[in-house]
Amino acid sequence: MKTITFLLLTTICLTTTKIAAQALNEVSKTTFSIETDPATFILKGYAFHIRIQPKNSQHFIIGAGTYALNLPKLMVNMNSDNKDKGWNVRIQNAISIFGEYYFKESNRKWFVGLQTGIQNFKNTNDNTATKECKYSNLLIMPSLGYNWHPLKNNLYVKPWMGIGYSTKISGQTSIDNLKYTISPLVPFLTIHLGYTL
Question: Which terminus of the chain is more solvent-facing, meaning fewer CB atoms within 10 Å of its CB: N or C?
Answer without folding.
Answer: N
